[in-house]
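Lecture notes, unit on protein representations.

Consider one protein chain, 423 amino acids long.
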Amino acid sequence: MNVFRNLGAVSLGDEAFIGNWNQITAAPAYQKYHREAGRLFLADGAGVVNRHYLDCSGSVRIGRMSMIGGIRSIIQSHELDLYDNATSIGTIDIGEYVFTGTAVLVLKGARIPDRTVVAAGATWTELDDDASPGLYAGTPARRLKAIDDAAWMTREHVHTPVTGKDDSFMTEHERPVQQPADAAAKPTRRRRRFLGVRTIGCCVAVALLFGLGVAAASATQWRTDDALRVQTWDFTPVHQGLAGLTVIDRNRNLSGVAIGDSGLGHGAARAPDAAVYLQREFASPVGRIGASVDFGRSGSGSVALVLPARGLPSAPARFDSDFPNAGVHLVVNARTWEMSVWERSFGQRTLASGSFDPVLVGILSIDVTRRRDTVHIALPDGRMESVSDSRIGSYSGRYAVWELFENNAGDVGATLTRIWAAD
């Protein structure tokens, strides 16, 4: 059982979970002034275990495969300014493959880098955006060492398996418990029961949200349908290449698309409207598309997530005249976002847009889920947006397209670290 109170929206990615006895609240007054206030976003595989307190008066984003572990941690996204006698909210951004131990305090404005461990009892304040991955401890938290060889940081499954090996617990007089002959099958059954308990806990939480009125009536919960078959391409640190992707390059950059240490990108633009497209065809209409992206220090490049009605023309010369209708054409850069449909006879028709304050830095994720004529957009600053239009469904087809785009000559493009899509 969990308590949710006054949240504007809760979003759970694939296999994301919230355990039991957590208190997740927001001060509703801020939602009158800020559309992004009162938001909690858990990316794919992210988790909040048991007995924690999350203040989501601002917005809290927990990245892919990250875990609020231990017990009794506090995530606090608003604060009091004693000098101005005023309170304010902010964003807390917890990166990918992050683990926080027992009784950790994370304060407004905190950005925890990917593949980081925050030791028990630490206090994470607003650190600079160039903080390196590693082990952090103390008040305020300071980096102690790198943890590059930790297997937890590269795991593929959400839950860490239980083992009987613990040399500090065993004594010379103790022996391991004898397992029955069919023990190999039991962990699977035990895990299913464990997941069932979590499912029941989530159902009770939803009942509290809507049946007892603990949460705001306007709260929305988005979760990707488990039936979706997500395909992922990871370009760092050990990339799998471009298998299954078609690359279409407009040949307006100083160098073509390549995968380097930091991800997939291409050279600076040598002409306006420089672009490269990665395309994947699915068996049925695409229902989800996303990317993890680093806009770099210049922030001059853009990324577009596109769901076209058919495949893109293979010849760049035909792009201006033969670019197909697209039900989703989401363009994001370090400063702004714009959700449009693309009509072959007209071009871009904007349905919704906005800006980021502060400007985006670091590796951040963008995720779009389409349900018929509506898209739910998880923006990289933690905001959630929903957009509906009949053309979203009618113009979307079996193709997913990721675009790196630069408006002007000399612009330095963004870098893709990971992309994904599902039909």
